[in-house]
Amino acid sequence: MLEGKALVEDTDMPMNMQIQAMSSASQALDLYDVFDCKSIAGFIKKEFDSKYGNGWQCVVGSNFGCFFTHSKGTFIYFTLERLKFLIFKGASSP
């Protein structure tokens, strides 16, 4: 397990949810090859959908851009190993 080695770059999640995000990422890295970003992201999304309800999105990789609207208190962007993790719950634009 790799908990404690993540670097949170930006978040508005409550601490317990942040810990869950990093724990899920660590578990996914234990299960999947570090180059299998799609499976890693799918694992994390399913964990969050199960624990916090449907609508979660997860992007995993080393080089990506994005622009999105998220529900307040559901966003985290962090680095673990060589990968970047973006997890958020989508929201409608006003």
From TrEMBL:
InterPro entries: DLC_sf, Dynein_light_chain_typ-1/2. SUPFAM superfamilies: DLC. Belongs to the dynein light chain family. Keywords: Cytoplasm, Cytoskeleton, Dynein, Microtubule, Motor protein. One of its GO terms (cellular component) is microtubule. One of its GO terms (biological process) is microtubule-based process. This is Dynein light chain. Its main location: cytoplasm. It is found in: Cytoplasm, Cytoskeleton. GO terms for molecular function: dynein intermediate chain binding. Coiled coil: none annotated.
